[in-house]
Amino acid sequence: MRYAETGFNLEIDLTRGNIEKVASDLGDTELYLGGLGTNAKILWDRVPPEVEPFSPENLLIFGAGLLCGTPATGCNRTIVTTISPQTRLMAFSMMGGFFAPELKYAGYDKVILRGQSPDLVYLYINNDKVEIRDASHLKGKGSIETAELIKKELKEPKAQVAAIGMAGENRVYYASVEQGRSSASRGGIGAVMGDKGLKAIVVRGTKDINIAEPEQYLELCNEVLEYIKIREDNPIPGVMPILAGLGSPQEMKVHDEKWHTENFMWGNSRTRRKDFWTDEIAKDWKETMENAQTRLISCFNCPMKCGATLSLPGLPTYMMKCFTKLTYTMGAFSDLNFGLKIAQRATEYGLDGFSAPQVMAFALELLDNGILTDKDFPEMPEDNEGKFYYLLDKIVRREGIGDILANGTYWAAKEIGNGAEEYAHNNIKKIEQLPLKLSMLNPIYFLMYATGEKMNITQIEGQFPQAPFPKRKQREKFCEDWIQVPDEKFKQIFLDWEFRGDNSIPYYPTVEMTCDIVDWQEMMHYIDDALGQCAGLSSFPLKPPYHIHNYPKFISAGAGIDMDEDKLTKAAKRYRTLVRAINIRRGMRRKDEKPPEDHWKKRFPELEEKLLDGYYKLKGWNNDGIPTKESLEELGLDYVSEDFIKRGILTDGDDAPGDDA
Amino acid sequence: MTGDKIDKKMKVIKTIKIDVDKCNGCRACEVICSAFHAAPKYSSNNPARSRIRIIRDPLRDIYVPVYAGEYTVAECAGRDKYTIDGKEYDECSFCRASCPSRDEFKEPDSGLPLKCDMCEGEDEPLCVKWCLADALTLETREEEEPDEQGEQEDMEIGLESLADKYGLQTIMDSLARMSEKD
Predict the structure, then answer these.
(1) ipTM exceeding 0.85?
(2) Nearest CA in chain A to B87
(3) CA closest to B28 among chain A residues
(4) d(Cα A167, Cα A188) in Å, to the nearest integer?
(5) pLDDT digits (tens, 9 = 90+) for A255-289
(6) Is the Cβ pair B58, A148 closer than 8 Å?
(7) Which option is the CATH number for A235-354: 1.20.58.1970, 3.40.50.300, 1.10.569.10, 3.40.50.2000?
(8) Total Cβ atoms within 10 A of residue A646
(9) Does the distance separating the beta carbons of B57 and A214 come in below 8 Å?
(10) In chain B, which residues have their Cβ closer than 8 Å to the Cβ of A145?
(11) Which tens digit of pLDDT belongs to each residue from A158-193?
């Protein structure tokens, strides 16, 4: 018997309409855990670098995390993996909600899709009954609308539905997969789903998930619940409200948006509005939110209320989480009411809330600067909000200029030319980033931005305070119950971290310290992504209930896999390296590992090089960011090093053939 | 009967108070219920085996946690709809029965009915313990067992009304016939 996981994957060939239930290898679970880890293994094995994102050979994998569906609080992530049309690299966007547990209860850990259906279809999984059904009547329907229609036609109100909207159908490079209150948004996964002719995956399951050591496992779960209660009753003093508690930033619950609106950039990530947040706006926005909100809601088996049901006058109800609350508002220099309204349409269309508003603001900037002209925007309304609605519709339909903008700022700028590239200024590895422009280089954030392959800083950062605390006493207090650190040295680094003087950024934390901090931050996210744990209760907040000390016990007791901290650290390193290997094989190199030029005003090129050197070394990568033969073999990834040597990515020695590889 | 002073017998009533406005729809109650009732305890979980269900329709803001009650062989003849605070609820949304009209509260493989046992042996039902949203809270109260004198009075009132209706003689005849049967 398999524990925590089901031991079966569904293999769907959309070209031939073939469906197979395939047993997975327990050995792979031991090495790569599940979720992201085993997704990466499958992608490495089966999608060679020559495969284009939009081709039948590209895989689209919906993988439930290893512990999803068990009683572990907050463990509900589906990790969706494919080759991204936007970055041409591996995309692995996560969604919470209720999909992953339902898939496990239906008896599967993953749905692996290949091929291309000639007609629009949806996949219906009901325990052992799996069928591909016609979806031609759902063409052009919104993502939430689609879910409702399908549940009705199947008479399965309890089914969970992951669907694309018009953006996905029309292969917009930043199309999302929407699932009720959650979505897998980054990297254009919805576009790949659309390219495959798949409108939705519907799942209903009523089977058991087994636990290896029941009493022990429940004790661990109870400890986590107790800790959540204590942590929620004792918010961390001295940090901004959204960082004081647990959960993914509580955007729906917290009304105070002074920090975001005054520190993040408006428009095409350009304008900082330092005195934006007035009492009047605070009152107005609070009223808007309270009028729109019917309820704060959660994902499967989680007490945090990170999402909300929103009903705006005259618009269908939808559910929102996190920062999409402000992205449209700030992109269009508007207010919260506009932001919530346009997000309703964007959610039905199925678009990434980070990229979409930036693309639209970018287009308007090109118009303002004469790179695009009025002819490119026939019949566009005069007002800014009207312009955003106009562009949104053009993009998802790929009409006129929308067809170019649908490829994101990087590709659109290339196609438009005429200096447009300068306006696509907020990308890393071709993907739009949070609209944040700061003054002094922060070495920790530099490394996370540069080397992150999750493409979104909120899915890389966490655990370590974002800034020093002003007084030593406060720092000492913070360290008192900081049980999550993998090593006591992190406390000392934090204790000595000051706002000014020798021990301040950019030279403190030192290169070595910075590398260790980032390595810890990244490791926790990667562990979450394999187990299916939401970052909001683990890798993102300060002092989370899950950490490197209790995770091995969860895996041992839950999945029956003998695990300790060293083994888990090594496993996480193994599949993290495999993710890198997939991207290296697709051409990613050191030259691609850089935050936007204007992310900080004060840059330190020499220090930045040293940071990258140090981090690569710590990771076992050579100076070009390529995992070395030695480090690959140490992780049991001999097959990767053999492939690298065969392809000339590595020579028999460790180094890359040349700097310009 | 000893006269004036009667020691009233008390019984403990456990009540789970359900605040539908506080439910966040996470279904932790379903998870822990099914885990607790697995054999061996906690060895598996499966919300489809849970004795509590959240009747859930997020887009219509409907979240009703319901506990499995008695099994019934027949479904209701008519099914009503309730509108509360502008939201329309199916009558079944509040019904605790394991009944032929729906698949709630039935073992998924055998179809056998499920019934909440308040997690016998635990300090409190685990659904309550795991509901950090406080949609489910336990209230224990003592209630008087109906005393015998009161019961006697109740019965006499009933008999009197029967006697008024049918005449005392008819009632006595009936009682005599009934006692012969025993």
Answers:
(1) yes
(2) A294
(3) A301
(4) 10
(5) 999 999 999 999 999 999 999 999 999 999 999 99
(6) no
(7) 1.10.569.10
(8) 9
(9) no
(10) none
(11) 999 999 999 999 999 999 999 988 999 999 999 999
